[in-house]
Design the sequence.
């Protein structure tokens, strides 16, 4: 007896479709899984067996061989639980079988048969759009994001029994419907307002120029001068995400964890600590999961205390800053990950931090300062367009009332500047001034 059903896994930020071929026949009872399956998939055998029995279905007392095709694609994650359980149950049903091959099935199973949410549903659904399917069965937790891009019905599933009843046609599930445009318009952005920044008029003007042209910036100043607040305020004056950018950003974050909101409408702001590992920063692992650089795609990557980061880690930013993406190659394969970011670096002028302070003396010698600054290599400095000095704020500015334009007013200026650049570069691959090649500047 051979049963087929479809599912998917994620590699990098792209979805890969997987076909499960389930054969039950003579031999000692047991299950064998083939097709480059990882430990997380092998462990699912006991979980699936318990879910089937607790759901009131018979478990096949036969030799079971499950092939996960294509064989050269690594299979990881718990999203293959539900299709495996559905396939095993269908193989033991008498009479006509449900048409499983025309459905895409995803979901993790609890021991009592409940269906839990999984990561990476949006990229998998995007990959499935290239095939002819009659429906998608996904966890109720993931149905919202799946319905954003799917052109075929998305059925939210709460339990294994509900999935079987729907496939047999006994109790159809009402499909999930989402209008991405309404979700996109309803999104609200939350970030510090520029009116919260007292003083620092020159730094705010420089950040406005940086946001308008998509320029990478370096903030240099002593501790307590407001570098972190300025960086966080930058997010609020960047133009709102377009619908296409919102879907791109959502797909990247969907790979890391099930989403609370079906569609991300705010540009991401990522601020990794300087102790972050290389895999956490750039990405890696068996499934080539994205790191902080890709999670900041279409948003801001903020490196506070930049010179505390290992120089090797900073040098990894060369290709992402130059091309807006990078190729992550490992022994198990390679994937291109998105990284169209605005980079904001913040650092002290010296190890003690007070080299440029007007009232406090610096305790660092010139060789120490030189070694400290050399941690930021020349190629990275070349990719930073604006170096902004941030001086301590005088006390009378701190006690004064908020003044100047707020973030919404500044965003309108930035959006108008972006429209001019869009018209200027309509026949080129460049989108903003910060991406212009040197030859085009001449």
Sequence:
């Amino acid at each position: 007896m051979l049963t087929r059903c479809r599912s998917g896994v994620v590699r990098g930020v792209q979805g890969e479709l997987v076909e499960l071929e389930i054969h039950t026949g003579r031999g000692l009872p047991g299950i064998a899984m083939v097709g480059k399956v990882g430990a997380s998939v092998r462990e699912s055998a006991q979980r699936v067996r318990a879910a089937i029995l607790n759901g009131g279905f018979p478990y096949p007392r036969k030799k079971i061989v499950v092939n996960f095709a294509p064989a050269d694609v690594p299979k990881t994650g718990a999203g293959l639980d539900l299709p495996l359980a559905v396939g095993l149950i269908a193989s033991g049903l008498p009479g006509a079988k449900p048409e499983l091959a025309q459905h895409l099935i995803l979901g993790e199973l609890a021991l009592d048969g409940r269906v839990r949410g999984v990561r990476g549903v949006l990229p998998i659904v995007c990959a499935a759009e290239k095939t002819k399917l009659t429906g998608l069965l996904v966890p109720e937790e993931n149905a919202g994001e799946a319905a954003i891009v799917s052109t075929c019905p998305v059925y939210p599933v709460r339990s294994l029994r509900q999935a079987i009843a729907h496939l047999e046609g006994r109790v159809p599930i009402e499909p999930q419907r989402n209008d991405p445009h309404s979700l996109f318009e309803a999104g609200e952005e939350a970030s510090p307002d520029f009116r919260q920044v007292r003083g620092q008029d020159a730094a705010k003007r420089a950040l406005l120029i940086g946001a308008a042209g998509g320029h990478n910036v370096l903030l240099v100043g002593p501790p307590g001068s407001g570098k972190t607040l300025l960086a966080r305020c930058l997010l609020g004056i960047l133009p709102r995400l377009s619908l296409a950018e919102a879907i791109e950003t959502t797909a990247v974050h969907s790979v890391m964890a099930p989403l609370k909101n079906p569609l991300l409408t705010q540009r991401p702001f990522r601020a990794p600590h300087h102790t972050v590992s290389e895999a956490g920063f750039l990405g890696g692992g068996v499934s080539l999961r994205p790191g902080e650089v890709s999670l900041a795609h279409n948003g801001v990557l903020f490196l506070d205390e930049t010179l505390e980061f290992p120089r090797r880690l900073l040098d990894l930013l060369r290709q992402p800053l130059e091309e807006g993406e990078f190729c992550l190659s490992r022994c198990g394969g390679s994937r291109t990950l998105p990284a169209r970011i605005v980079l904001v670096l913040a650092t002290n002028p010296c190890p003690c931090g007070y080299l440029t302070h007007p009232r406090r003396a610096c305790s660092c010698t010139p060789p120490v300062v030189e070694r400290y600054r050399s941690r930021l290599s020349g190629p990275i400095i070349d990719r930073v367009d604006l170096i902004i000095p941030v001086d301590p704020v005088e006390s009378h500015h701190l006690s004064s009332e908020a003044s100047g334009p707020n973030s919404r007013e500044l965003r309108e200026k930035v959006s108008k500047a972006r429209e001019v650049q869009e018209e200027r570069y309509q026949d080129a691959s460049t989108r903003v001034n910060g991406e212009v090649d040197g030859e085009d500047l001449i």
In short: The longest strand covers residues 14-25. The longest helix spans residues 407-424.
